[in-house]
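We include the entry.

. . .
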Amino acid sequence: MDHRLTEMLVCPVCKGPLQLHRDEASRPTELICPADRLAFPVRDGIPVMLENEARHLAAEEE
C-alpha cells in the first residue's frame, strides 16, 4: 500500500487519523483508529473502510 495513501485516509467514523499496522513480513494488515478503538482490515492491499467490517480493539491492544 502506498505511503501517501495511508496519510490521506481518515477514520470513516470520527474523521481522525489512522495508524498502519503490519505483520511480521511487513505487509499492511490493519488501519487502526485509536480514538474509536477500531481496526479496519487491509485485504489484498486494499483498505476496507466500512464500520461494520472493522474489528473492535480490546483495551490491551491500544
